Recover the amino acids of this structure.
């Protein structure tokens, strides 16, 4: 009987091994243990990493491929977020990406592989040295790894709702799609056609000729000119169903049931769904490379003369504006303005983000950006010296340039500056110690002169031997706790002075509107001093966030101030535009899914009151002023909407109120 039981047990084990997916219980394991044809269960959904695959022996060579690919079997009824990190052991070189798998489906997730520019044809780089992408899926990045030496792939699986541990499976990662860069000498010339499109590729939505563009203009003018927000919204786009609160006649903020909101001028809660650069396109440089572009010089010269040089100058062409003139004719600016507003209302977008076209009586809530020139402080680029008298002059002038908007109820508020480089707490003070002459340096000397009764007292504390305060320099022991503390105190003073100055001048020009901060970028997100002081003066904190998820974006929750996401996007590097974006989507469908999920995560965060996609149009394939060439637009350079994004924003608008609850 015992022998029979043993035989039965072995038979059952054989059936399990043969017919059921293998269950990897350990989070970490070697790639040598994975059979490429078998499915493996993922069970650790609540952890930061669900699966870690190490390639110490059985290597995965991605050098000849465009994508890192991983088959996923999602047997759950929820869409899954498959976040991947891959690298060679140096954390700062790790790549990360996200792919969304539909419920009850089998899919192969694909993550784009970036390349070092050194791998590219030098002729491409001679013409487009700062481009972020090149034809046939060649995407360069400053952060690259040796693709022959991949050490690990880490996967994190998550969903918006709890899912069963027996519902998600994966197969071994592999490389997909051959990496075959196009040599410049093999490229058809001209590279760009008369409409500004890449000549050597075709895609759905590509415009064939100017006549087709004109016909589309007639359709769009009829379709969008009379569009309105739905009756569930106020004229400003506020949510009537949430209730009506104090109507101040201007946008303000209020916390309702522990969640922050904008309150529109009529008193209705408003959550800002925006796009930056609304209605605008970017110029591409043609200086010294005109042979790469179709010859349209005569047409451009005529149009530029009649339209205040909005189309071209000696250095470049704005193909988007050129196509709008072709599309709508003589009164193109007026028609385009009306159509863009109609598109916003039809698509469910309620805010003109930063750098958008703004005219009087826009009938769309909007934001403005005031700025001054940035400068270097030692090695810190794109910084501000708030103690420089010229800074005050420029700040006043730039704010006053928008004074005609100061009584406009459609104006939500003003961003002042974009992505200032603050560095870490001691970076700017240390750089100032190296300088001999600047307003900020003089203020540093005065700060310590006021703090200490004499240079002798400071020398005792710092263990230094300066003769006077003008002699202080970086030849000190930064590890000295008192020196560290003093420099940190100065940085706090420096940041406070900046925000205090901007706030004071802002209120003089815009007493009724919101100061929306300075659009803090990724390297400043974690600076506690900057965000603490920003929250002291700004009505709304603004962050530019290029992440796949906002699930851990909660470090501001104790500041008791609302937050707006000033920029985010996911680019595809398709449809004739070579660059992807700061965060990447595999295709248009994935782009739309990533967009919806990002806004969903923003909407359920009690502090966040808006998120603005960057940007309205695709950047030119051949690059904007700085070479950046991302396929990130809601519309193409020929003003054709990407319907996946349009459907996504309609979905967001229809569901946001329920998400916010």
């Amino acid at each position: 009987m015992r022998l029979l039981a043993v035989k039965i047990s072995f038979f059952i084990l054989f059936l399990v091994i043969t017919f059921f997916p293998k269950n990897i219980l350990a989070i970490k394991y070697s790639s040598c243990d994975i059979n490429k044809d078998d499915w493996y269960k993922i069970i650790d959904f609540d952890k930061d990493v669900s699966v870690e695959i190490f390639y110490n022996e059985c290597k995965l060579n991605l050098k000849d491929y465009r994508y890192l690919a991983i088959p996923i079997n999602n047997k759950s009824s929820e869409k899954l977020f498959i976040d991947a990190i891959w690298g060679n052991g140096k954390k700062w070189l790790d790549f990360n990406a996200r792919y969304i798998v539909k419920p009850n489906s089998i899919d192969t997730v694909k993550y784009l592989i970036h390349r070092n520019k050194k791998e590219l044809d030098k002729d491409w780089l001679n013409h487009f040295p700062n481009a972020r992408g090149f034809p046939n899926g060649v995407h360069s990045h400053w952060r690259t790894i040796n693709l022959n030496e991949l050490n690990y792939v880490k996967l994190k699986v998550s969903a918006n709702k709890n899912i069963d541990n027996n519902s998600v499976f994966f197969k071994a990662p592999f490389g997909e799609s051959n990496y075959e860069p196009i040599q410049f000498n093999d490229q058809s010339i001209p590279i760009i056609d008369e409409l500004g499109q890449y000549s050597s590729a075709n895609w759905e939505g590509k415009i064939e000729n100017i006549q087709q563009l004109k016909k589309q203009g007639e359709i769009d003018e009829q379709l969008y000119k009379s569009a309105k927000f739905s009756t569930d919204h106020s004229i400003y786009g506020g949510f009537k169903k949430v209730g009506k609160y104090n109507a101040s006649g201007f946008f303000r903020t209020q916390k309702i049931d522990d969640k922050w909101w904008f309150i529109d001028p009529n008193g209705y809660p408003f959550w800002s769904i925006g796009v930056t650069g609304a209605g605008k396109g970017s110029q591409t440089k043609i200086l010294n490379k005109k042979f790469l572009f179709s010859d349209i010089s005569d047409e451009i010269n005529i149009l530029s003369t009649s339209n205040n040089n909005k189309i071209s100058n000696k250095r470049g062409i704005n193909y988007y504006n050129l196509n709008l003139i072709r599309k709508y004719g003589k009164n193109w600016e007026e028609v385009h303005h009306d159509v863009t507003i109609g598109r916003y209302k039809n698509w469910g977008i309620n805010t003109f983000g930063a750098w958008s076209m703004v005219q009087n009586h826009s009938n769309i809530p909007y934001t403005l950006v005031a700025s001054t020139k940035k400068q270097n402080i030692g090695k810190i680029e794109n910084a501000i010296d708030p103690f420089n008298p010229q800074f005050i002059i420029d700040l006043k002038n730039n704010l006053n340039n928008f004074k005609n908007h100061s009584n406009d109820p459609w104006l939500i508020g003003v961003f002042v500056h974009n992505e200032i480089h603050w560095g870490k707490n001691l970076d700017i003070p240390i750089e100032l110690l190296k300088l001999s002459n600047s307003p900020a340096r003089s203020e540093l000397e005065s700060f310590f002169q006021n703090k200490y009764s004499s240079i002798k007292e400071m020398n005792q504390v710092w263990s230094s031997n300066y003769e006077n305060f003008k002699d202080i320099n970086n030849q000190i022991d930064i590890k000295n706790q008192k020196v560290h503390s003093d420099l940190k105190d100065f940085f706090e003073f420096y940041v406070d002075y900046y925000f205090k100055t901007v706030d004071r001048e802002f209120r003089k020009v815009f007493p009724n509107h919101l100061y929306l901060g300075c659009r803090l970028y990724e390297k400043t997100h974690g600076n506690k001093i900057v965000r603490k002081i920003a929250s002291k003066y700004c009505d709304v904190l603004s962050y530019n966030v290029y992440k796949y998820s906002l699930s851990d974006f909660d470090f501001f929750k104790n500041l008791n101030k609302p937050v707006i996401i000033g920029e985010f996007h996911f680019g595809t590097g398709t449809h004739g535009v070579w660059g992807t974006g700061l965060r990447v989507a595999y295709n248009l469908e994935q782009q739309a899914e990533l967009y919806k999920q990002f806004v969903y995560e923003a909407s359920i965060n009690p502090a966040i009151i808006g998120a603005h996609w960057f940007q309205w149009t695709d950047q030119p394939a051949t690059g904007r002023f700085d070479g950046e060439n991302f396929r990130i637009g809601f519309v193409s350079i020929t003003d054709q909407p990407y319907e996946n994004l349009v459907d996504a924003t309609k979905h967001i608008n229809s569901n946001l109120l329920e998400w916010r609850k």
